[in-house]
Amino acid sequence: MKVGILYSRIRKDEKLLLSELRDRGHDVEKIDVRKERFGLDATTAAVDDLDIVVDRCLSTSRSLYATRFLDSYGVPVVNSPETGDVCADKAKNSLALAEADVPTPATEVAFTKDAALEAIESFGYPCVLKPVTGSWGRLMAKIDSRNAAEAILEHKETLGHYEHKVFYVQEFVDKPGRDIRVLAVDGEPVAAMTRSSDHWLTNAAKGGETKSFDLDDRALELVERASDAVGGGLLGVDLMEVGVDADSGPAEGGADGYTVHEVNHTVEFKALDAATDVDVPATVVDWLEEKAVELADAEAEEADA
Amino acid sequence: MTSDTDTLVAEDPITGDEIELPADVEVGEIIDSPVTGTELEVISLDPVVLEEAPELEEDWGE
């Protein structure tokens, strides 16, 4: 098959993917989106004969626009622009999960400093303020007091970009020092790991320690439903355990359940590949091969109809 | 430039030092300069050209 990779930076994740694709004899077309132009009915990118395009853009804005244009030309692309649109925005992400009855932390969005302060006070302290767009734990604030809330809101108002005036306030989930990252393809888990840290942010990008994790039936069900809620694809589903004593730690008694805090659409998997026995890039390429056939069949059916 | 089968040699764009890169390096790949630790982007392979990598932007991530 001929596979396009949308990118602007080749990370270890893309390197693993490229290597696996080439080892299997697939033709790979690397598409650096910084060098291309996207018109209303054509692009300078060489996409005409691609069986599937994988969006690996590091920049969310580029990811959303590039996939939308390719989809408009009829180029099969994963993840779909619709999935990207939901996952790239934390408010849309939370709404999609809630609409699908997937347990997710209580969240409110407010558009002014005063309304945001009311939301924060209604949650009580601590609570969490997040940018609606962003990743790797950047600009996340755990708010412990009204004084801190007032200061952070004032600072956010001066940051400039209009998105910082969309205040996304969330309950603080007292997780047991770790959260769970699941890489899934159309809801089917590829691999899972915990990310542990003494810091309240446990992201691997923030230096959280990673360890392989076995999903129980409840977690498997939630991963599938969370994936469906955002439109499926190659996704990173993040869960936190609830009902675990944060002081006694995750080994004591297990969790009563989980809450899904977000689903990521341009998921990094190098940490999962290192932390687990799963050959993650191989499993991802298995899925891409199936997906390319599935999308081609769907297109043929549509043409026949 | 190629030093042997396992590595490529390129000029660090900031210091001018010669630095070694893995032979399987990709265009678009980011490497850390062994001289300064700065992130460098591989711009081309023939010849091997490096540039200082773009700064992190607010919408980067997963």
TrEMBL record, chain B:
Transmembrane segments: none
Lineage top rank: taxon: Archaea
Stored Pfam families: Zn_ribbon_LysW
PANTHER family: LYSINE BIOSYNTHESIS PROTEIN-RELATED (PTHR40393:SF1), LYSINE BIOSYNTHESIS PROTEIN-RELATED-RELATED (PTHR40393)
Protein name according to UniProt: Lysine biosynthesis protein LysW
The species this protein was found in: Halorubrum pallidum
